[in-house]
Design a protein that fits this description.
By secondary structure, this protein is mainly alpha-helical. It has 9 helices and 2 strands. The chain folds into 2 domains: 81 residues, Winged helix-like DNA-binding domain superfamily/Winged helix DNA-binding domain (Arc Repressor Mutant, subunit A); 85 residues, no CATH class.
Length: 173
């Protein structure tokens, strides 16, 4: 991490790491999308450039928010993992999503997801953080993720189904 900071204010120091949208979107895709490889992260909806992605991943590793290791399934791939400080951002993302779904013209799918996360509160956040710890900091089995908040637990699946049904009723034929 850089030695020179504009100030030692905790908000400033946090913004020095997360102060651009690409960094937050990369973390969003890792936390909620389960993306851990460069190519997976490159395929985001917003269209990040490969050099920008490489720069942000390097910065997040340098700051200790992510780790980078060789992928045991492929010699030429790296796998990125959240550290405890990256996992601790779940409540921050929940708050940003709740604010955005209240005050901005979000899509039904993403708005529903944000509202479910906000309504679930700290109990849901802790469950997601537990799952992320198992996935990124230790071994995880399929049984551990079956009803998980990220992989589409019962409440999240129901919210997505309801949003999809509303879209099909309102979309032009």
């Amino acid at each position: 991490m850089r030695d020179a900071h504009r100030s030692l204010c905790p908000i400033n120091l946090s913004l020095e790491i997360f102060g651009d949208s690409w960094t937050l979107l990369i973390l969003r895709d890792m936390i909620f999308g389960g993306r851990r490889h460069f190519r997976e992260l490159l395929q985001n909806q917003e269209g990040i450039a490969s050099n920008m992605l490489a720069d942000r991943l390097h910065r997040l590793v340098e700051c200790g928010v992510l780790t980078r290791a060789g992928d045991p399934t492929h010699k030429q791939k790296a796998i990125y993992s959240l550290t405890e400080s990256g996992i601790a951002l779940v409540p921050v993302f929940a708050a940003i999503g709740a604010w955005g779904s209240t005050y901005l013209p979000v899509s039904e799918e993403f708005g529903t997801r944000a509202r479910v996360l906000a309504k679930g509160g700290s109990r849901l956040w802790k469950a997601l953080m537990k799952e992320l710890r198992e996935t990124h900091l230790g071994a995880v089995t399929p049984a551990q993720t079956a009803g998980s908040p990220r992989s589409g637990g019962k409440r999240a699946r129901g919210a997505r189904s309801a949003a999809s049904a509303r879209r099909s009723r309102t979309s032009p034929r």
